[in-house]
Amino acid sequence: MVSNNASPNPKHPTSSLTTAPSIQSKSGVTVNPACTSTFNELKLGKSIKYIIYKLSDDYKEIVVEESSTDPEWENFQKKIIDAKASHRGKEGRGPRYAVYDFQYELEGGEGTRNKIVFISWSPDEGTLVFPRMTYASSKEALKNALNGLGAEVQANNEEEIEYSTILSHVSKGKR
Question: Which spans in the chain are helix H?
Answer without folding.
Answer: 33-40, 73-81, 129-145, 163-171
